[in-house]
Amino acid sequence: MNTRMLLLASGMISMSALAQNGDVMMKKFENQLPQSGRGNVNVAYQGKAIDQLVYDFMEEEGIPGMTLAIVQAPYIPRVVGYGMTDISNGNLASVKTIWPIGPIAQGFAAVTVMQLLEQGKLSLNDNIGKYISDAPDSWKAVTILQLLQHSSGIPDYRKNQNFSSSKDFTTKTLMDMANKNSLEFTPGTDVSQSATNFLLLTSIIEKVSKITYHDFVKKNQIDYLGLKQTFFGEDLSKIKQENVATTKNLHETFKHDKDYINPAETTTGYVEKDNTLVQVESQSASAFKGFSDVWASAENVSHWDIALAGSVLIKKPENRDIIYKPTKLANGKVVPAMAGWQFYGHKGLMDIKGEAPGHSAFLSRFTDASELVCVTLLANKGGVDLTNLARRIAASFDNTKLGTGANEDNLYTLESQFSVDETVANLERGLKELNVPLFAKFDHAANAQNVSLEMKPNQVLVFGSPKVGTALMIENPSFSIELPLRISVWEDNKGSVWVSFPQMENLAARYGLKDNQIVQKMQVLLQRLATKSSSVY
Predict the structure, then answer these.
(1) Alpha-carbon span 363 to 38, nearest angstrom
(2) Backbone φ and ψ of 143, nearest 5°
(3) What pLDDT does residue 32 have?
(4) Do residues 183 and 177 make contact, with C-beta atoms less than 8 angstroms apart?
(5) Strands (DSSP E) along 122-174, which ranges?
(6) Could you tell me the pTM of the whole model?
C-alpha cells in the first residue's frame, strides 16, 4: 500500500513538473473556453504580451506617449494609454487623450464624398472645373475620382518653401502654392499622394452641400456616431483642460469639478534632433484641410473604423468598394491604394497611416469575416513607422492567420503591397538613390527551377557601404560573417509578399556591439528602405 502511494505521489510530482516546464498544458475548462483566436485570453505574439511589445517599441524609438485601441468587431475590447503626452507637464496618455490623427483624416473626407454621391449631388466623373471656377486651367479636367485616387498629378502644396504646418492659410493661398509647379504627370496615369487633392475635395464638398466641410463631417460622421473625443482644429479650444503648469504639474481641478475626472487632453508633439526630443509647434487648423485636419482619441478612431464596415456611413456596398479596394486608373493600371488607404496580399487587409507635426498615426483593418481585427496606434513622436508594431499586435489575437511567419527577434518584417519582382525593383532604385552599392542579387525560385524544384518567388539583395561595414569589422572582426547587408523579399503560401532583414541591434549585441551608433543608423536605413519600397504612399 505504501509503495502504491509513493508511486502515485511520484507521478503527480512528475506531472506537475512537466506542466511547469510547459510540456503539458493543464487549463481549467479548456474544452469550453477558446484556446486560440477570438475570445482567447492568451493574447501574445511569439511569447510577448501586447504590453511588452509596446514597451519595447517605445523604448527603442524613444516615444514619449502612445494610445492603442484594438477592435474585434463589433467590440473595442482594449484601449490603453502608455507614457506621457507632454514631457514638461507630465500629462499621461489615456483612453480619452486627443491626438492629431494625420492622414487618417483622409478617410473622413472620402466618406463625405461617397455620402454626397449617394445623395445624387455629384458624380465621381465630374471635372473639378465644374465646381472650382478659379482652379488653374491645367487642373480643371481632373475628376473627383482622380482626386480620391491621388492620380491627379497636381503638386503637393506641402513641398512649397513658404508652407509651414503651424501657420494659417486660406484654400486659395494653398492652391496658389501648389500651382507654382506644373502637373507631375498626366492625370489618371500614376499615383502620388498630395494634400492638394483633398484640399480640393473639401472645396467641392462645400460647393455641393452648401455648408462648410467642417459642419458636414461633424453632422454626418462625428455627431452621428457620437464621437465625443473627435474634433477639428478650430474646435480644440472647447476642450476643458487644466493648466497644470500653474499647480506644480499636479491635477487639482478634478477634486471639485466633475468635468475634469478622467479628462480628455490634447498632446504635445516631438521630433528627434541630435539624440534629443524637441517639442514642435502645434499644427494650425487650416494647414491640412481634408488631409490631416482631425484630432481624436484612439477609441473614437476605432469606433469610426467599425462604422466603415457596413452601411452605417456609406449605404451601398458598391460605393464602399470604390474607396476600400485597389483602384483602377484611367490608363488601366491597378494600384493597391485609394483615398489614403493601402491594400495588401493578405485578404481583406488595409491600412492608412502617416504623420502630423510631431506625431505618428496608424490604423489597420483586417476586414475578412474570419478575422475582423483592427489596430489604432497614435503617438507623439514624428517620423515613426508603426506598421510592424501594429502587425505584431494584430497577430497577438491570432498568430497563425495574422503573423508574419518570421522570428521577429531575429528579423524585421513588413508586408509589401507589390509583387516580389516589383518590390525588388523598388529596393534597387532606393539603393541607387542612396548611392549604396548593390553587390549581388539571388533569385532562389529561379535557382530551384534550374534543379527541377518549385518554390514561391524569393529573392535576396546583398549590398552595403564598405566604409560603414569596415568600421564595425575593425571593432569586432568576427562581425564580417554578417556583412554585407541583406534584404530578403519572399512570397508566402497565402500570396502575401514580405520584406525581411536582420534586426541589426539584436544581431550586433551578440558581437559585443550593443548600442553602437553605426548599427542603429543601419537599422534606421534598412527600415526606411523597406517601407518605401513596399508602399504606394
Answers:
(1) 20
(2) -95, 165
(3) 82
(4) no
(5) none
(6) 0.91
